[in-house]
Amino acid sequence: MLDRAVGLLRQLGEAGAGGQQLSRLADALGLSASTTHRLLAALEHHGWVERVDGGKRHRLGAALVALAGQAADGTGLRRICRPALARLSGESGETTFLIVRSGLNAVVVDRQEGDYVIESLTQGVGGLMPLGIGAGSVAILAGQPLAEIEAVLSANAGRYAQFGSSLEQVRHRLARVQADGALMLDDSLIAGLAAISLPIRPPGHAVTAAIAVNFIASRLDAEARQALLERMRREVAAVEASLAVPATLSRPPRGGEG
Amino acid sequence: MLDRAVGLLRQLGEAGAGGQQLSRLADALGLSASTTHRLLAALEHHGWVERVDGGKRHRLGAALVALAGQAADGTGLRRICRPALARLSGESGETTFLIVRSGLNAVVVDRQEGDYVIESLTQGVGGLMPLGIGAGSVAILAGQPLAEIEAVLSANAGRYAQFGSSLEQVRHRLARVQADGALMLDDSLIAGLAAISLPIRPPGHAVTAAIAVNFIASRLDAEARQALLERMRREVAAVEASLAVPATLSRPPRGGEG
DNA sequence: ATTCAATTTCCGCATTTTGGAATTGATGCG
DNA sequence: CGCATCAATTCCAAAATGCGGAAATTGAAT
């Protein structure tokens, strides 16, 4: 029941803005129409699913956005890292990302725009990719225990091809992170797009997140990239330091509106 | 079962960054410990719940962020409105919001920072408030059919006090939106914080969303506010026009990483 | 007007969930 | 150092709930 609901929501996520009709969902999940109907009704009741134009197509509902807003804050990391991301974006003019692990995937939890818009080329908040694909994703994976890395690699191996990487390439990049504590990538997923990423390692814990900067490769030469990397190292060091002191885990001030 | 899972996730959302232990959750929801345990395990398996530091406290997981990223794009509105929000924030220097309805609540679906940071005063993406509270929220409610408005008002009446508004005040603001097609608010929720909001009405449909600009009241005089409002009217008109042509409902390009 | 596909409702059966009780584990106290 | 306490986890038989086939309804297309 719950698993079916999760599958249904995933499927709806794939469907995108236009939504999807009941019968297609039932087919895709191998469920009977009546079961699918009942599930959709229940989810709709909670606002997790809504009808497109009140018609017969279904899509993900706004209640999920609300829940996820709390989830993203929930790690606490987002609030802590946001000023760092803002500084990096502000000073470099490039787009900055905060990425965390979710099972076999990496998820973009926060993102700050730079002056240079690469909107359509990159993942938005909530964007998902296999662990091992994408600069930040690699940085996170590289910081896991060895057995964990192997488990993830073997589970994800089949997914790498569609992102234009081989298992060997992924392994090579992991090694670079482990050697340098950071990763610089060119033509990362998109030709001409470059990225620099750093793992975030809370003192006494394994790596839980990474920050990354994406930019058009031609915009920064080797020297500028090195400078940016050093800048990022300082920001990450500051973040890690502030994680050492558990700080206030209390809720943020319930503020104004939008 | 599903309802209990939803309740559990809501409860975890309330808990915030520090997470919550099983027994408290069970108490809060009136469930037995074994049921709660089973639910948490199932949700954890899907990445919707995770353990804090691998310990015994639970919080919302990153998989929800991923799902919600799709949900937020899912309305299609976010992609369409983002350039408008960016222009408004860029030109005015203030913070801009895109808000949609979710049941009895309004949810912040997108947000663009201005030069002037009011981060801690305002809702982030995913922020939730009762329909009728907050400038954008009022604008949405005012555009619903009359019977709908009354239903929402009576359902939400009890929640207004905690936001410092009375039912009469809400009704008054609704009337202003209906008269002017927009709303200017002072001391909206926070003393010294002002807001301007406009409903977004897709041609041939009821109002489905609103945009709002929040700013420190002292930063803009009456004349500047009027100018900003006119600017917003133009942006909303353009958005509504682009909604008339269903445009491409296809998925966005699967781009690079974060 | 008729047909066909898709959605929605109904209902008896059986699979699943349920919560009390027992077990294990962790933490603090005497 | 061992005992007591509280929370988390596992187990199990009873039963409630979800399941899907079939029937009814909608509504769009011919």
From TrEMBL, chains A, B:
Keywords: DNA-binding, Transcription, Transcription regulation
Highest rank taxon of the organism: Bacteria
Residues annotated as domain IclR-ED: 63-245
Start and end residues of each HTH iclR-type domain: 1-62
UniProt keyword annotation of DNA-binding present: yes
Gene Ontology BP term (one): negative regulation of DNA-templated transcription
SMART domains for this protein: HTH_ICLR (SM00346)
GO molecular function: DNA binding; DNA-binding transcription factor activity
Protein name: Transcriptional regulator, IclR family
Upper lineage: Bacteria, Pseudomonadati, Pseudomonadota, Alphaproteobacteria, Acetobacterales
